[in-house]
Automatic annotation (TrEMBL):
Pfam families reported for this sequence: TrkA_N
Gene3D superfamilies, per database record: NAD(P)-binding Rossmann-like Domain, Regulator of K+ conductance, C-terminal domain
Residue stretches making up the RCK N-terminal domain: 1-117
InterPro entries named among the record's database cross-references: NAD(P)-bd_dom_sf, RCK_C, RCK_C_sf, RCK_N, Trk_Ktr_HKT_K-transport
Top-level taxon in the UniProt lineage: Bacteria
GO MF annotation, one: monoatomic cation transmembrane transporter activity
GO aspect biological process, one term: potassium ion transport
Ranges where the RCK C-terminal domain occurs: 134-228
Name of this chain's protein: TrkA family potassium uptake protein
Amino acid sequence: MKYIVLGLGHFGRSLAIRLTEMGHEVIGVDVKLTLVEQFKDQITHTVCLDTTDRESVRSLPLKDSDAVIVGIGEDGGASILTTALLKQLQVKRIIGRVISDLQKTVLEAMDIAEYVMPEEEAATRLAMRLDNIDIVDSFQVSDKYSIIETKVPAKYVGLSLQEANLTNIYKVIVLTTLRDQVGSALGQNRLKREATGIAKSDTILQEGDVLVLFGEMADIMRLIRKGE
């Protein structure tokens, strides 16, 4: 797929580099030539231009892109102007970046349905980990449901998922388990956490495994507390 990422600050360049590594064609854009030059070997294409200038933005292959992501964070005015310009140019899929409640209100007024709040999302995930050391990571799917990574409670080590019966007891679904695997990187053997595949009834829970759970937060926390 083809993506355009506008703004190569910490968020924008991380996204552009990751999408490139995943095999997508990415155009990374920034007004600062130093950033464009710095990441030209890590992103499919990099372009130096002012994203608030209509003619400059029109020179990008907007119609051929599957999505245009506004990654500008430091300059809220430039982010809003860029998003408004993309809307005027009838870009089919715009993903905005929100760093304030006011900016969120403006994007919603422009009928931008998709936006990300990386700082707030990162803070929420960290808060979850700090609040409970057994939570490895978290992702809020909706107001009601979350996906949580948590260590396998000691009482379930050695049991199959069928024997543990977590779905019936706690009303949560085990999506998969994560396990440390030995991999090679730069000539050295390192541990890398990888998914073991879709969880099945005969999946055996091992010490050190991480459960990837889907459900309501209250039910997941009940599992964590009673599983100790």
